[in-house]
Known about the structure:
Elements: E1 2-7, H1 10-14, E2 23-27, E3 39-40, E4 50-53, E5 61-65, E6 68-73, H2 78-81, E7 84-87, E8 100-109, H3 111-115, E9 118-123, E10 133-138, E11 141-147, E12 153-158, E13 171-178, E14 183-190, E15 195-198, E16 202-203, E17 216-218, E18 220-221, E19 225-226, E20 229-238, H4 244-254, E21 266-267, E22 275-277, E23 279-280, E24 283-284, E25 287-291, E26 295-296, E27 302-310, E28 316-326, E29 336-337, E30 351-360, E31 368-377, E32 391-393, E33 399-402, E34 407-414, E35 419-426, E36 440-443, E37 446-457, E38 463-471, E39 485-490, H5 493-500, E40 506-510, E41 516-520, H6 525-536, E42 539-543, E43 548-552, E44 558-564, E45 569-577, E46 584-588, E47 604-606, E48 616-620, H7 627-641, E49 645-652, E50 671-676, E51 681-693, E52 700-704, H8 729-739, E53 758-760, E54 763-765, E55 775-777, E56 787-789, E57 820-826, E58 832-838
Parallel strand pairs: 40-43, 44-50, 46-48
Antiparallel strand pairs: 1-31, 2-20, 3-4, 4-7, 5-6, 6-20, 7-17, 8-13, 8-20, 9-10, 9-17, 10-11, 11-12, 13-14, 14-15, 14-16, 18-19, 21-22, 22-31, 23-24, 25-30, 26-30, 27-31, 28-29, 28-30, 32-33, 32-36, 34-35, 34-51, 35-38, 36-37, 37-38, 39-41, 42-43, 45-49, 46-47, 49-52, 50-51, 51-52, 53-56, ...
Amino acid sequence: xxxxxxxxxxxxxxxxxxxxxxxxxxxxxxxxxxxxxxxxxxxxxxxxxxxxxxxxxxxxxxxxxxxxxxxxxxxxxxxxxxxxxxxxxxxxxxxxxxxxxxxxxxxxxxxxxxxxxxxxxxxxxxxxxxxxxxxxxxxxxxxxxxxxxxxxxxxxxxxxxxxxxxxxxxxxxxxxxxxxxxxxxxxxxxxxxxxxxxxxxxxxxxxxxxxxxxxxxxxxxxxxxxxxxxxxxxxxxxxxxxxxxxxxxxxxxxxxxxxxxxxxxxxxxxxxxxxxxxxxxxxxxxxxxxxxxxxxxxxxxxxxxxxxxxxxxxxxxxxxxxxxxxxxxxxxxxxxxxxxxxxxxxxxxxxxxxxxxxxxxxxxxxxxxxxxxxxxxxxxxxxxxxxxxxxxxxxxxxxxxxxxxxxxxxxxxxxxxxxxxxxxxxxxxxxxxxxxxxxxxxxxxxxxxxxxxxxxxxxxxxxxxxxxxxxxxxxxxxxxxxxxxxxxxxxxxxxxxxxxxxxxxxxxxxxxxxxxxxxxxxxxxxxxxxxxxxxxxxxxxxxxxxxxxxxxxxxxxxxxxxxxxxxxxxxxxxxxxxxxxxxxxxxxxxxxxxxxxxxxxxxxxxxxxxxxxxxxxxxxxxxxxxxxxxxxxxxxxxxxxxxxxxxxxxxxxxxxxxxxxxxxxxxxxxxxxxxxxxxxxxxxxxxxxxxxxxxxxxxxxxxxxxxxxxxxxxxxxxxxxxxxxxxxxxxxxxxxxxxxxxxxxxxxxxxxxxxxxxxxxxxxxxxxxxxxxxxxxxxxxxxxxxxxxxxxxxxxxxxxxxxxxxxxxxxxxxxxxxxxxxxxxxxxxxxxxxxxxxxx
Length: 840
C-alpha cells in the first residue's frame, strides 16, 4: 500500500496559496490590524513586510473573508484616502531572477476599479531606480508592462479576457514571465463560477531589468492612481517552477476549501495545521462541515482513507468522513461516506476532495482534525479463484503477506447462504506470524475474517496451521441491537437501509420490487437482511470489497458454461426428493390473520400440478399483517413446495483457468448446462453452492438447482423467519438453516467415509442416507460404548444449534444405557462443561 496523497497543512485546509522555497514574498493579510509600525507580515518567512500607507482615518481594514482576513482599501474615496501598501526592496527582490518569475494573488475590485482607465495592482514604477514590471487594470482588463534596465518599456499588453470583472467579485490573477526565453502568459479565474481564462503565450524583446532596486507597491502609482477593493494572498516568486497548469490546479482545487472561511463553523487558522470547530466568545459550534482542497487520487487499485484526529470519546468526534471525486476538477461525483475501515466508496478519478463533519456534545470542547491520508491499495494479486492464494491484510486493509505456500484452500459459498474460507499453512512458514484471529484475508476481491486458527502436529511430526475464516458480511451479525420496526407496504429498500444503518455497509442495487407489510423483530443487521430476503424473495448479494448489499431478482447470468462427462465433469449425482412435497398450504399472518376473505373463504392455497394427492402444510408468516401480501407470499412458497426438490452434485473442473477456455467461466448463482448421455440428462440449472478448491480447481464440487441439506444453523433466531410447515418440519426449518449455515462439522453426511471423525465402533453405510447417499451406523452391544466424535472450533456466537436425523431399529437400552449427543464445551479460561442431549 502506498500513500497517494496527504492533507495536513494550513493551506490544505484553507485553500490559501502555498509557500515554496522559491517564494520571495507572500502576504496573507490574516492579521486583525497592522502592528505598531503599521506593518503587515510577509508569510514567506523572509520578513518582507508591507507598510500600510494611509491606515488611520481611512476605510482601510482587514475584513473577514473566504481565506481568513483580507486587506481592503479606498472604499469611500480612493483619490482622497490614497491607501496603498509598500514592501521595501532590500536589493534582493529582483537579483538572480533565474528562468522564470511569477506574480499573482486574489483581487476583490469595486465598481471604481473596474471602471477607471488606469488602476495599479502590483507596481515597481515608484522607484528608486528603474522598474521591472507593472501589473494593472486598464478599463477593467488585465494589463502587464515590462521594462529593461534603462527604464524603457519592452512589453505592454492589455488582454481582453472572456471573464468580465464585476463589482465585489473575487478573482485570482497571475502572470508568468519567462526571463530567458522571453515569453509571457496571464491568468484570470472567477471564484463565483470556477471559470478560467488564460491568455495566449506572448513574447517580448530586450532584457528584463534584473538590477531593479525598486520597491513593490500595491494599489498606487505616481500618487495619482489608486486601487479600490480587496487584496488577498499575493505572492511573488523568482526562479519559479510554477507553470500555468500549476496555477490553474491551485485555483480549481482550492475553490471549495473552507478552513479559513469566516462564514463556516470550522476553523483552520486559530491552530495552524489543524481544523477545529469555530468558537464564538469561547463557545464552540456543536457541529461543522469542513471542506478540503482537492488532492491527487488516480488509484492503481482500491483506496482507503485514514483520518488522524484528537477527540474525547463520547464527547467530541469526527462524526462523518465523505469524499467526492473528479477527472477535471469541475464535474464532481456525489458525496459518499467512506466505509467503516476507511474504504473509499467514491469512483476512482484523478482527484479527490473531502467533506468532514466535526461534532461535540460539550461546546467548551472541540475535536481536532490533524491529517487526511489517501492510501492506494493495488489490485489483488489474483484476478480469479483458480490458483489464487490467500492475501493477509493489515489493520489498514493493505497487503501484508501473500501466502504462496498455503494449501487445501477451499472457498465454500452458497446463494443466500454461507461464505467461508478454509486453508492450511506449514507452521514453520515465515509468514505464519502474519496470521491472527480477527485479521482479514483477501481472496481475489472477497474479504474474510479469521475466526479460528488451529496448529496441529501429525504422527509423522509435521506441524500444520489450519485456518477457518468467515466472509466479511458475517460481522453484520454483531451490529448494534436494532429496535423493532414496522414496515407498511414497503419495497425491500426501506428495511434494508434500516438494517444497514450505522454498520459501515451501504445499500447497493435492489431489483426486487415486492411490497410487504411486516414487523421486524430481529436484533442485528444480518438477521434483518435474511428476513427481508425470505419475505421479499430474490438473491441477497454481499459485495465485501465495497461493503455494499444488493437484493437482486436473479443474482447471476446464463453463463453458457457446459459441464459434461470426460470434459470437465468427473462425477455427477442427481437426487429427486419428494419427502417434503406439499400440495395444500395454509398460511397464518400476524395475530392469526388469514387471506380467506379474498380467497373464496379458503385459508389455504393449492397446487396439484405434480401430485393429485392432498398433502397439507402450514406456513407461519406472523410478521406479515396484510392479507393480500400474505396470499402472494403463500403462493410464492407453494410454488417451491409443490414440486420435488431436485439436486445435482458435480465434481467438476473450472476450465476457465486454462488458456483458451476463458469462455467457460461461471460464478455462484449462474445458470450452466449439464450434459450426461449415460443418465439421459441435458439440463440447464443453477449453481447454488460451490466448494471451490483454489489450489486444485479440478476438485471443485458444485451443487446445482437446490441446495442439499447438510449445513446447520447456529442461531435459533432464524427460526422466527422460517416458513414453519407443521406437517413437513424438515423441509421448511432446514431451508432456513441452509440460508444461514454456520455449521462447523465436517463431512457430516459421511460422503467422505469417516474422514474428520474419530470413530469407536461406528461404520459408514454407503447406501442409506437422508440428505445424501451415505450415513453413519453403529450396532449396539450391551455394556459397551460406541461413539463418533469430532472436535470443532466455533467462532463467537450467542447461541448454537445441534441437529441430526437418526433412525433406530429394535433399540433396547440396558440399565445405564444412553443414546444421544454429548457436548463437551471448553471455555477460554480452560474450564470445561459437559452436556448430554438424550435422543431416546
